[in-house]
Amino acid sequence: xxxxxxxxxxxxxxxxxxxxxxxxxxxxxxxxxxxxxxxxxxxxxxxxxxxxxxxxxxxxxxxxxxxxxxxxxxxxxxxxxxxxxxxxxxxxxxxxxxxxxxxxxxxxxxxxxxxxxxxxxxxxxxxxxxxxxxxxxxxxxxxxxxxxxxxxxxxxxxxxxxxxxxxxxxxxxxxxxxxxxxxxxxxxxxxxxxxxxxxxxxxxxxxxxxxxxxxxxxxxxxxxxxxxxxxxxxxxxxxxxxxxxxxxx
Length: 249
Prior knowledge:
The chain has 7 helices and 6 strands. The chain has 249 residues and is α/β, with parallel strands linked by helices. The chain has a 6-stranded mixed sheet with strand order 3-2-1-4-6-5, sandwiched between helices. A hairpin with a 5-residue loop joins strand 5 and strand 6 (168-171). It starts with a helix and ends in a 61-residue tail after the last helix.
């Protein structure tokens, strides 16, 4: 990122809090060089809205997802659906094979169910590390995070410095959106929707760590449901506390 672009970011970042999702996406695509900004999505509803918004502005924008090696078959099929819908490729990042082999040898295939610590270690290996490798080559990334997802995400800003990933800019265009707004956009623009939503899923991750929930249940209640008193996060969206910043970064 050039000094000029960095100066523009510093001046305009707070102003995005009152911006529409379309304006926030347009700002990100305008402020950073093509190839240095990307939509990073797990192909859930919100991520697909951001993908659609970005592609309407720049059909060549980078779109990336993480294949953990434990995704449901439906997610792999849906990836092909999204590629066909937009007539373009979607970049896939994966964990380091040798690291996965070593982890499986040490802890077995279902280590995530043994303890919260091993579950987080599995997430770190399969999700966080591939994401960090991807983000290391970016100046800005766009996500589908919403404040309504959980109490942990209730203070999600529209744009922020991502200090967990080297201080790059993270734009969350749908931060203030409701679930109803997401569904309305998907319907209005004929955006493809992951088929597991129709089976009762409200959040979709790895196959053994995600399940359908009862109608009206908390959005994140189907993630790592056997854990008690542990944050239902994988670590990709961690917001470290920084000295001198005054709270979560």
